[in-house]
Amino acid sequence: MSLQKYLALALASVLCLGLVAAPAAAQEAEILWLPEEVRFASELGYVYVPELDWLSVSLDEDGFVPALYDMGTGTLVEEFDDMGPFSEGLAGVSKDGKDGYIDRTGQVVVPLVWDVARDFHDGVAVAMLERPYAPPYAEYTYLDYYLIDPTGAIVAHLGPEYGDVSDFHGGVAYVWDYHTDLTWYIDTQGRVVEPPEDTSVFDSSYDYDRFNLAVEWQGDKCGLVDKDGTVVIPYEYDYASWITEGPDHQPGRYWYVQKGDRFGLVKDPAWQDTPPVIPWGTWGATAYPSTQTVEVDGKAVEFQMYALKDENGNDTNYIKLRDLAAVLNSFDVGWNGKNVLVETGKPYTPNGSEGNTPYSGPQDCVGAEGNVVLIDGEGTPLRSFVITDANGGGHTYFRLRDVGKALGFQVGWTDQRGIFVETDKPYQE
């Protein structure tokens, strides 16, 4: 998409990273070389789309001829020139300078009529049309802003005074009018609203902590080095960079390298294909009450859970660790002021919070992908989210499957049994 060209400029400042320690001996990773006519260029966004196994590439040295390369078939995708990542079930695509959206089957669901169309967040996307100024300045253009829904219907016409509109986070977007330098916030219907308590989600800077490799140079040649200082790709290449993936444009599973006129892909050896259900850190989401009956070792037990909706609108259930501990009575739960403490092989010590929730109805929450739980003294990052009650107390909910995996018991689901927990069986994916 057109937007990826702008994203690439923001990425340029972090592409060449260096390490201080002397690297270990080279252990070269396998390189998947692309056809000779397929290349990368900095004007593009280096996007890999795993849902369709498509890669954004260029057919010229300067990046002015965008194209999509189908990794599965080894051919170019003729229907589109460029695309962005899937977000809420749709991905933006471009053809001949116009943007629209496709679904996961590759079918166009929003016609390619927009000059710029951004990712969907909170059920809406920011789309723009390029319009000429009135004479005598008709050779100049400006962007006219709209909000559209997943069918392509216009939710709100924001107008040209909306000089820049961010993506939506927690139902709110940040607006800046560069003509007047005024700022304000809008909801998903385009109505002006009060600023949210936490505005850091609208910071446009990129601060990724998921780099597993780094580019290191020796003279005019570069290689890739992992976090342990081991050279994964020797210093034989003219350029290397990371590729984005997912709706938050995170570093993806591939890096690309250039040697002369040939371009290739290197798979990050530490890549974990487990994208979060919601944007984590300070990015907000909405959790929904989800009382569930779970079969625990053959007995039906009701839990007051909360659920997060994934990008397809499906629920993923999260549970309070103390509620589960109270039922299983096979591990204890504590808190040291910083981390959750779990001691296995001990009976659970109640604190009065079990089996109830201080909330009613949907609640704003904050994701915490790296929330560390110390299990018998060993740190284990578990996906979770926190809801803060009216008294400022934080209540953490964990994904049931993650708890089962960390503690070594099976969590599953079938049409006949629904959700079930089997503590006498080891966890299996």
Protein model, in words:
The chain is mainly beta and 429 residues long. The chain folds into two domains: 201 residues, no CATH class; 139 residues, no CATH class. The chain is 6% helix and 46% strand. A hairpin with an 8-residue loop joins strand 11 and strand 12. The N terminus is likely disordered.
Topology of this protein?
Elements: H1 2-11, E1 31-33, E2 48-49, E3 54-58, E4 66-70, E5 75-76, E6 82-87, E7 90-95, E8 98-102, E9 108-114, E10 116-117, E11 125-132, E12 141-148, E13 154-159, E14 164-165, E15 172-177, E16 182-187, E17 192-193, E18 213-218, E19 221-226, E20 231-237, E21 239-245, E22 250-259, E23 262-267, E24 284-296, E25 299-309, E26 315-320, H2 321-328, E27 331-335, E28 340-344, E29 363-367, E30 372-375, E31 378-381, E32 384-388, E33 394-399, H3 400-407, E34 410-414, E35 418-422
Parallel strand pairs: 24-35, 28-30
Antiparallel strand pairs: 1-23, 2-3, 3-4, 4-5, 6-7, 7-8, 8-9, 10-11, 11-12, 12-13, 14-15, 15-16, 16-17, 18-19, 19-20, 21-22, 22-23, 24-25, 24-29, 25-26, 26-33, 27-28, 29-32, 30-31, 32-33, 34-35
